[in-house]
Every structure is written in C-alpha cells, then in structure tokens.
Prior knowledge:
Residues 591-737 form the Retinoblastoma-associated protein C-terminal domain. Belongs to the retinoblastoma protein (RB) family. A hairpin with a 7-residue loop joins strand 5 and strand 6 (627-628). Helix 3 packs across helix 6. 55% of the residues lie in helices and 2% in strands. It has helices spanning 2-16, 22-40, 47-62, 74-82, 91-94, 106-115, 120-137, 149-163, 182-186, 209-223, 233-240, 247-269, 274-303, 309-312, 315-334, 351-356, 360-373, 379-394, 403-413, 436-440, 468-492, 500-513, 523-537, 544-552, 560-563, 575-592, 643-648, 658-680, 711-738; strands at 190-192, 204-206, 565-568, 571-573, 618-619, 627-628. It is mainly alpha-helical. The protein is globular, with a radius of gyration of 33 Å. The strands form 3 sheets. It has a two-stranded antiparallel sheet with strand order 1-2. A two-stranded antiparallel sheet has the order 3-4. Strands 5-6 form a two-stranded antiparallel ribbon. It starts with a helix and ends with a helix.
Amino acid sequence: TLALYQRFVNDLTVPCMFPSRRTELWESSWTMFLLAKGTFLQMEDDLVIAFQLLLCVLEFFTKRFTPSLLQSPYKSAVSSSTLSPPTRTSRRNQGKAKPRPPEMDVQLLETLCKESDCSVDEVKNVYQTTFCAFLDSVGLSGLQGLPPMETLSKQYEELYYKNKDFDARLFLVDDETLSPNKTEVSKVEMTPRKNLSGDDVAIPVPQTPIRAAMNSIQQLRVDLTSASDQPSSNLLVYYKNCTVDPTEEIRKRVEELGQVFIKRFAQAVGQHCEGLGRKRFNLGAQLYYKVMESMLKSEEKRLSVQNFSKLLNNAAFHTSLLACALEVVMATYVGNSGASDSVETDLCFPWILDVFRLPAFDFYKVIESFIKAEPTLKHDMMKHLEQCEHVIMESLAWKADSPLFDLLKQSREEGPGEQAEPPATLNQPLHHNHTAADLYLSPVRPSRQPPATEAEPPTPGTKALRSNSLSLFYKKLYRMAYLRLKTLFSHLLTSHPELEPIIWTLLQHTLQNEYELMRDRHLDQLIMSAMYAICKVKNVDLRFKTIVTAYKEMPNTNQETFKRVLIREGQYDSIIVFYNLVFMQKLKTNILQYSSPRPPPLSPIPRIPCSPYKNSPLRVPGSNNVYVSPLKSSRMSPVVMTPRSRILISIGESFGSADKFQKINEMVSSTDWSLKRSLGGGSAPKPLKRLRFDMDGQDEADGSKSSGESTLIQKLAEMILQKQLNFEIFLLFKITVLF
C-alpha cells in the first residue's frame, strides 16, 4: 500500500491535477481507491491489479475537471475527448433502455497508461469489469461531479471495521507509523528513462516496486511479441511427424487447463477479474509454445530425429511445461523475482501446482530444460525458478501422495544393491546435459539404449534401469542438503570440524535408506536432527534451542519448520518431540555406531558445482535486445595461464596479501633495472625466466640469442613487457572487484 501511495502522490496526482485542488483530490481519489480495492479485490496485495484500479480512479476524477485546470499531457487528452459528444438514446427506447455503464474516457485512460508504462488493454478490462461494478455498488455511476468526501470516508470506515485491517487513510496525514525509513528511501535504485528525443539526456528515476513490476511485464510482452498462443507452423510440422499425432490432445488440454486457471484466478483475485486471468493465461500459452518449439529444435539437433511421438504424447510433460510458463508470467506480475525481500501472495509458487493438480516432482523435471530453452529469460526469473526447484527438493516433492515414493519403492524392490543414487557418485561432477525427454521418459538411462525420445520400456524378465529423473533428483538433493548442513555447521560447530563429515554421513544414510522419514516433512528437520544426534553421541554440548536459534538466522527459513513437525498421522509437534519420538527411535542403532571403535565408513563429500542457470545470457539493464554471456574459454583460465599470470592472479587467497604485492614490486624493479643497465651499456644481469617472454619459440633465459641483438630491440622488448605487466596488474584489481 505504501508503494501504491508513493506512486499515487509523486508520479500521478502532482503532474495530473491542478495544484490548488491537490489536497481535496488526494483525499477523495485515494479514499475511493481504497474503497474499490477493499470491496472488489479479494487478494489486495496483487500490486499490478491494484495499480491498474488506481489508474481507473484517476481517470474518474481527472475527466471531471475542465481542461484548463489540468497539466500536459492530460489537458490535451481531456480536450480532445470532450469534442466527441456522448451517444443518445432515442425517445422511443428511453423507457426500455438499461442503465448505461459509466463512460470511459479512452484517450485519457490511454494517456495515463502510457505515462505509467501500463498495458492499456488490461486497464480497460479492469475498468469495464471491476471499476464499473464498484461504481454501481456505491451509487456513483451517474454522478457528473466529484463524489462527496464524507460519503466515501463513511463507506471506507465501515469496510475498515469489517476487515479489521489498518486504516490506509493515515498515509494522507503522513502518519509516522506508516512512513518508510529515510535510509531505505535513499537507497532506491535508479534507472534511466528512455530518451523521447535524441538530444535529451536520460534522467534517472527511482526504481519503485510498481515501476519495476511494470518494466518486467513490458519486457515479457516484448519477448513474446513474435510468439502466438497457438502452435506455430514449425510446431505443427513436429506434431505431424509423430507416430501418434498429438495436435488434438494438446489443443484440448490447453483449453481445459485454461478454463481451470481462469476460474481459480478469479476466485483468488476477485470474481470480476476473469478477463485479467484470461490475458495472463494467454501470455503463458505464448511462452509455452515458444519454449516447446525451442526444446524440440534442440532435441532434433542432438538426436538427428524428427519423430518425438513419445514426448509430445506425454501429458505430464505438457502440463508441467505450461505450468512453468504460467509461473514465469505470474511471478513477473506479482513481482516475486527470487529476491529475498520479494512479497509473497496467494498467487506465488506453488499456487500453480495446486491449480493444475500437478505433482511437484513432475514440475521439477522441466525447470532446467525450460531455462536452457528460453534465452530471453531474465536473470531474476531464473533465480526464481531455481528457488522453486529448491522448495520442491526440500519439501514439496515429499508430500505423502508424491510419485517420488513410488520410484524409490521401485528402486528398492530391484534389489539391495540398487539405490536412488550411489554415494560413490557424490564426488563426481554434476553434469547438466539432461533434457526434458530424458526425465519424462524415465526409467531409461542413456547407456547402450536407444535415444530417450524413442526408447522402449524394458521387456518382462529384464532388469529395469535406474530412473533418470530419480537419479538427477538425488544428485541435486545431496548437494543442496550438504550446503545447508555446512552453513548451519559454520554457525555452531567450527571448533569441532571433525564432526561435519560424520553428521553428513548420517544425513546421507537417512535420505538414502530411511527416506520415509521425509514423508510430509522438511529436509531441514532431518539436518537439525542429525546434527543434534551426532553431538549427543560424541558428547559435544549443543542444545536444540541453540540449533534452532542459528537456523532462524539462515536465509529462506520459516519458523513453522521447527515449530510444527509431523509426529504421526494428523499429529504435529515441535522438532524436539519429532527427534525423541521418531528420528531417534528409527535411527538409534545407526547413531550409536558412531561412538563405537569401528564406526561406519564416511560418505563422500558432494562436489558442489556452479548453478547450471548461471551460464544463460543475462540481459543488459535498460536494453531490449542486448545480452551478455559468460566467456566459454577464458584467456585467464588456469589451463592457459602464463607463469607470470599465475603469480599475479590471486586464486583462493585474500586480496592485498603482502607477498603478492612484494612479487609485483620485485618484477617491476627487475624490469626497470634491466632496462637501465641495457641503456647504460653495462653488462645486464641474466633476467628472471618468469619475467621474459618467448620469441620465435626460443627461451631467452639461457642467453642463446645472438650477441649482436641491438639495444633498440631490447628496449622495445622491455617496453612491451612493461605494458603487459601493467595490464596484468590492472586485471588483478578487476578480477578482485568482480569476485
């Protein structure tokens, strides 16, 4: 509400209204907006829809003033709109005519939308559905002048006492309890406006939450300009090449899921918002078809086949892909872009899973392939999808009815030697070359098998291969679990480093062999319990209260995780009760082994890779079509570093260590001294090998060059060396800043 009020005051009412009437307009228009938002928006924290409703309110007030009282460009918008008289109803039909909805000043509304970088079509939809219904409900549809402030205030007070929310009219009197901290305001990010004329200099404007949301939405629309909410001609060719044509099934599925989405959207936001839900679904459908085509092109290039019948007839794949596309759209509108301070609303993940009744484990399979297939995806949206993946691995995939348990049960039934993912693979690199086909057509592991898109299920009597999706899930789960354990360990047990691998071994054993403990529970609950158990058996004084206190300081944690843990069906209690009655009872024998003279062998420490999503191109801020991709083969990589580069670049050490600067000084001094002796005609001492460079493949350090080499060539060589040295010193500072 603060973000809306700041935009209302700073960017809308001041340039729009006549200053002498500002106080009266502030009170009336702001109160009407609060009344409309509280009456017709069931989910009031949807920033975008609330802002669109605010523009409707401003249109209502602005058009009731004569143009001379308005400032540009609103003056011209109202002036031109008054030239076209309203339509009249004939006398014959006057008695039969229905009450007309309030007339919308289209040009004025378009001007307001243009100044606010807001979608005109969406605002018109809000006006015709939500705002007109609101005006009818409060009896203001036929009003020609300004609504009486007393009436609006009285109606809002009734709403305020009914909802027991805070009184948002206090913003009008600058109430201190609602004012932001000055330090927060001063740190508002600045973004340049696009130049309207080629000569004007871009003026930075505050990057408010509303403007950030509008920019993200606008960018999403630009990225989807060439996309359609129907299959493209290329996609139709892929459909026709299938053994079983999926065209009709895909069309019916998208239509049915669209109806479900629009209905649930209206239930969450407001019954008059079905039109907005339809527009958001259409954007999601555009992204769905765009990414699907990109995936199929990539698969065709990888496999040299065009028949993707198994994948394109897989319902879970299509539902997951559409859900992922809609999650991107919804997160863009809500403003949930992966930031730690992003606002959570009823439409945030995992809302879309509930709408489509989609298992989280199925949704997880498409995330990595989706990000790879959509190069225009913003970096903050990639982080958001990565965070969705983490939420799935830590809890959502472990719901009681999750297909993950069926896969684990199947893996165990194949024999005692079969595991979801052998611990021996933990210290191996995690490869991110899996495709959607690999994961949705499991269980088939690509080893001496046909390509995943055309692989057949194992024949009866043969041993089924381990599921690709389960294997990758456990690889990522182990690495995420270890990172979280390591973070919590660093807050509590730095004086006992020998305990970390033991705690990890117990945790890894639990996830691998006692995975039923994760059913309807959270990964962090097992991490805290494992830490407490090992400390207990190793006689290290660490209380659960201390663990919980440190856990609360970790990012992306929730107190519900340790306050409400499933004990048995329908019964919940604290994590201490869970440890005593469930965790310890199940793992007592295994825990006690760590105090014996022959403890169990330690599990390998997972090899932690970089995020697979960091290799995607990043959009340059303020541009529509400029992207920066990571350098694939860096000239400064350790493989191709020269000995001199190795000395200069500090890898794994703190910046500014004395020995590094000392070596740089020695190199510079040696170079200067060598140059002076050469120019003076004296016999120069043999220079250090690492300070010389190779010419024509020969090493100059042994003095094998001709004695007739001129002083000029030596001088040029030393000058080149000095410039190269200066450049590498510059790189030292640059790399330090980057990291």
